[in-house]
Amino acid sequence: xxxxxxxxxxxxxxxxxxxxxxxxxxxxxxxxxxxxxxxxxxxxxxxxxxxxxxxxxxxxxxxxxxxxxxxxxxxxxxxxxxxxxxxxxxxxxxxxxxxxxxxxxxxxxxxxxxxxxxxxxxxxxxxxxxxxxxxxxxxxxxxxxxxxxxxxxxxxxxxxxxxxxxxxxxxxxxxxxxxxxxxxxxxxxxxxxxxxxxxxxxxxxxxxxxxxxxxxxxxxxxxxxxxxxxxxxxxxxxxxxxxxxxxxxxxxxxxxxxxxxxxxxxxxxxxxxxxxxxxxxxxxxxxxxxxxxxxxxxxxxxxxxxxxxxxxxxxxxxxxxxxxxxxxxxxxxxxxxxxxxxxxxxxxxxxxxxxxxxxxxxxxxxxxxxxxxxxxxxxxxxxxxxxxxxxxxxxxxxxxxxxxxxxxxxxxxxxxxxxxxxxxxxxxxxxxxxxxxxxxxxxxxxxxxxxxxxxxxxxxxxxxxxxxxxxxxxxxxxxxxxxxxxxxxxxxxxxxxxxxxxxxxxxxxxxxxxxxxxx
Length: 519
Description:
The chain has four helices and 37 strands. It is mainly β and 519 residues long. The protein is rod-shaped.
């Protein structure tokens, strides 16, 4: 029978350790045996059900006999002999010999996961007032949980989180380690993966937790974020544990990442007997939200994107991760660029032009600029941005889903300046895209029309911004030669009006003088 018990205990993941006393639950069964769960998970409910009576002959280490009623739901696992002693059913060995045959190698019922599920379902269904299979249950406060006043017997222990162990309490005291099946997890998301420099993004870190790994209590969780140098003004705006705000300090505030880019959350307190009491419910979810501004250190057009990794590391009382490896999650953001190409009527590059972009401030010079800030709703234009010596204007740090509004502020010498505005659309790098060449046209009044080139062809390219001017969807802007006439009401027409008026007055004076002389 001892072999039977050893096998069942092994299958049920039971380990015997010295018990620490903390939370006690009197079973009311009228015995003096105990069952102690050393790693009871906070807010989980544990139930012990006496399956069979146990009788010990001689000393506590003597023979044990089990008697009672085998539940119908468990009839496949147990059997009674002629005098009513209960044991696990035997099965034939690999040779096919039946139990009791000469040469029989002891083999007992091989309980599968489904079998344990059936046993758990049976135990869950036992009513609190059942006299055939008496039971007791208690919700853990996160410390060691001890059921007292039990009669000697063979017990089934189940918890509300779904784990199951079977124990023999006739030692007379049994210690059980709950097989907590919750494993920590780490997840990270960002509210926008396609960003421009100067944009503030929001990261959300979501962690699933566990209070124990086997018998090892988790005493703290350490959250580490890489917080790359392309992020600045990092601010934790929310921390919740199990849906409730978590704040520290006086006055209380959400914890911020420290100099090591970590946030440490205590998860258990040490009791006077050396055991640990969990602070939070088993599996309580940690959610951390923080904002950060994307700066010019972001890689523009990086094929792999700009990675940001978060790590969750549980620590036991020795400062070690009982799962050995931390839990990682990462997210990526991307930013891109655009180019304006200035040409003459023949399509030749034309240096000397300058442009302004609505809602944007930039840094840089000589045709190559990086976004400092961008507000699509703004009506204010940037300062004039000069093309380089070839006639290209590059703008880096754009979201590919943004359409820029631009206008020409300075035309090359000898060319008409465009009136009105036109649009510039960035495209993603390192991905194949199909587009149609576009050229900016203007009508006789100087109004800009941005439309497809007549007879233009669609091209499929792999955008690579290592060379914007040849591998990006360049916005081509054409200028025509000519002197721009002054607008009506401008200073040029005023001069003509003044000169014309003077001539009329002069003619009148001369006419009057001649008439007087004639008289």
